[in-house]
């Protein structure tokens, strides 16, 4: 099914689009919230600061648009900052997120051997079964770049964890709304598996 | 547990061709960059750095058509450097599907650009390349313009300044060691890695896994190489190679 990618002026749309096309899935970039009603799958990318993301979502009208889409019950996936924006808040700024899941993002605690951002390849540890994780094996690796990580209020929303100076949340799900902290579009075959699962679930 | 060490092939491009200079000069044409990107993608490399080595020197703009082709074949993070002089150019390149912008000449000649790009794209997308050469009198000198212009800064000072300006990652490149297969300049790598908190990528001189391990032990967060991954054997024939994941994971410093 066609995956619509939200263009709100942030995030690497080209990479997501390129990978969806490579795995044979239809993808389109949507620049107007009015286009969301006809969308079957919605992907919210995002790179950069939390408050900038919130501001862009609100100014483009996508904040309400994405909330309405989520209420429709159709699959929504946030990537990186796009996942953090699904929550209520972040230590990175003072703006209110989309509030589709309770909780917020916290900064990694830097240590002598812990450089921030967490940048590079790391493996994820699924904590429950999920259609998005179908075919993701134990020796998986995904590409991460982030300084903040989400802490959901409800532990039942945690789908997968990863380890960087301690466990942190790498994937979340609440009903039809899911998020990935890593970049599937830059994670070779493992990323393709997750995006294919999303497009086909 | 921390992230896996990153092992990064560096492709040097000149006028649309993949080239292999030695010690920053004497280019040798070795093939089609897109083909190389395709092969590296199939090998599922951790990350890729593509540097257009004459864009900065000749003052030409980034080759957007080439960058677009690279982005559509690379399903791993890609850093691009060469001829980026405005934040608008940087935004356009990242919009195509490139994750990081590498600055060298501009970082020294128009340092405000580093800050501008970091504010626009985030520090983790802003990489400064510190190209250093040993001074005959001792210590190191940092160069810009493909090792042709002295900046007057030591690599440690250049690195600190780049980070203050907003760089989120540094490539530390030894001009003396490029394509020599004589190992990284570990003293250089260690001095910069100690001086900054951002990740440091070691480049220049790698001959194999032992050199990777040594650079990681010296404080590098990632190791990069050009010749090692594209040239092979005594006659330096073109052959694209890359270590397996098990070998890469075994490099993690203790």
Automatic annotation (TrEMBL), chain A:
Q: Name one GO molecular function term.
A: glutaminase activity
The reactions it catalyses are: L-glutamine + H2O = L-glutamate + NH4(+); 5-[(5-phospho-1-deoxy-D-ribulos-1-ylimino)methylamino]-1-(5-phospho-beta-D-ribosyl)imidazole-4-carboxamide + L-glutamine = D-erythro-1-(imidazol-4-yl)glycerol 3-phosphate + 5-amino-1-(5-phospho-beta-D-ribosyl)imidazole-4-carboxamide + L-glutamate + H(+)
- Where do the catalytic residues lie? 80 (nucleophile), 183, 185
Q: What's one GO BP annotation on this UniProt entry?
A: L-histidine biosynthetic process
Chief subcellular location: cytoplasm
Give its E.C. classification number.
4.3.2.10, 3.5.1.2
Q: Which PROSITE patterns match?
A: GATASE_COBBQ (PS51274), GATASE_TYPE_1 (PS51273)
State the pathway, as annotated in the record: Amino-acid biosynthesis; L-histidine biosynthesis; L-histidine from 5-phospho-alpha-D-ribose 1-diphosphate: step 5/9
Query: Which SUPFAM superfamilies does the UniProt entry name for this protein?
Result: Class I glutamine amidotransferase-like
Identify the InterPro entries for this entry: Class_I_gatase-like, GATASE, Imidazole-glycPsynth_HisH
Record keyword DNA-binding present: no
A GO cellular-component term linked to this record: cytoplasm
* Functional summary from the UniProt entry: IGPS catalyzes the conversion of PRFAR and glutamine to IGP, AICAR and glutamate. The HisH subunit catalyzes the hydrolysis of glutamine to glutamate and ammonia as part of the synthesis of IGP and AICAR. The resulting ammonia molecule is channeled to the active site of HisF.
Quaternary assembly:
Heterodimer of HisH and HisF.
Q: What NCBIfam families does the entry give? A: IMP_synth_hisH (TIGR01855)
PANTHER family cross-referenced by the UniProt entry: IMIDAZOLE GLYCEROL PHOSPHATE SYNTHASE SUBUNIT HISH
Q: What is this protein called?
A: Imidazole glycerol phosphate synthase subunit HisH
Source organism of this protein record: Ruicaihuangia caeni
UniProtKB/TrEMBL annotation, chain B:
User: Which Gene Ontology biological process is one annotated for this entry?
Assistant: L-histidine biosynthetic process
What Pfam families does the database record attribute to this sequence? His_biosynth
Question: What sort of enzyme, by top EC class, is this?
Answer: lyase
Q: Which InterPro entries match?
A: Aldolase_TIM, His_biosynth, HisF, IGPS_HisA/HisF, RibuloseP-bd_barrel
Family as reported in the entry's similarity comment: Belongs to the HisA/HisF family.
Q: What does this protein do?
A: IGPS catalyzes the conversion of PRFAR and glutamine to IGP, AICAR and glutamate. The HisF subunit catalyzes the cyclization activity that produces IGP and AICAR from PRFAR using the ammonia provided by the HisH subunit.
**What NCBIfam families does the record point to?**
AglZ_HisF2_fam (NF038364)
Name-wise, this protein is imidazole glycerol-phosphate synthase
Q: Which organism is it from?
A: Ruicaihuangia caeni
């Amino acid at each position: 099914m066609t995956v619509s990618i939200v263009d709100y002026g942030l995030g690497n749309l080209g990479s997501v689009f390129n990978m969806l096309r490579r795995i044979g899935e239809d993808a389109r970039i949507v620049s107007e919230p009015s286009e969301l009603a006809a969308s079957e799958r919605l992907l919210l990318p995002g790179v950069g600061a939390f408050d900038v993301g919130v501001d862009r979502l609100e100014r483009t009208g996508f904040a309400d648009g994405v909330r309405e889409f989520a209420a429709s019950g159709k699959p929504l996936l946030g990537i990186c900052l796009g996942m953090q924006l699904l929550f209520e808040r972040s230590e990175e700024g003072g703006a209110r997120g989309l509030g589709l899941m309770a909780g917020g993002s916290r900064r990694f605690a830097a240590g002598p051997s812990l450089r921030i951002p967490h940048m590079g390849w790391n493996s994820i540890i699924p904590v429950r079964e999920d259609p998005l994780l179908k075919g993701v094996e134990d020796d998986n690796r995904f590409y991460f770049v982030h300084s903040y990580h989400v802490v959901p209020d409800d532990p039942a929303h945690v789908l997968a964890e990863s380890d960087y100076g301690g466990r942190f949340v790498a994937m979340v799900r609440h009903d039809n709304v899911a998020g990935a902290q890593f970049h599937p579009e830059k994670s070779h075959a493992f990323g393709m598996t997750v995006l294919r699962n999303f497009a086909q679930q | 547990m921390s992230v896996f060490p990153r092992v990064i092939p560096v492709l040097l491009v000149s006028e649309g061709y993949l080239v292999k200079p030695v010690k920053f000069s004497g280019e040798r044409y070795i093939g089609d960059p897109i083909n190389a990107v395709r092969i590296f993608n199939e090998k599922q490399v951790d990350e890729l750095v593509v540097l257009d080595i004459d864009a900065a020197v000749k003052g030409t703009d980034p080759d957007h058509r080439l960058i677009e082709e690279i982005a559509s074949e690379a399903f791993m993070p890609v850093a691009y450097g060469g001829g980026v002089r405005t934040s608008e150019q940087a935004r356009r390149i990242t919009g195509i599907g490139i994750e990081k912008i590498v600055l060298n000449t501009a970082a020294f000649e128009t340092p405000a650009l580093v800050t501008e790009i970091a504010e626009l794209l985030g520090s983790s997308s802003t990489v400064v390349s510190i190209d250093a050469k040993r001074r005959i009198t001792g210590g190191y000198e940092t160069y810009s313009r493909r090792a042709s212009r002295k900046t007057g800064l030591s690599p440690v000072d250049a690195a600190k300044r780049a980070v203050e300006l907003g760089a989120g990652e540094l490539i530390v490149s030894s001009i003396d060691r490029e394509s020599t297969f004589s190992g990284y300049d570990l003293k250089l790598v260690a001095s910069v890695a100690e001086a900054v908190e951002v990740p440091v990528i070691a480049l220049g001189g790698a001959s194999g896994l032992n050199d990777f391990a040594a650079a990681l032990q010296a404080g590098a967060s990632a190791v990069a190489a050009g010749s090692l991954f594209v040239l092979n054997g005594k006659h330096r024939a073109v052959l694209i190679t890359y270590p397996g994941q098990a070998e890469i994971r075994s490099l993690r410093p203790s």
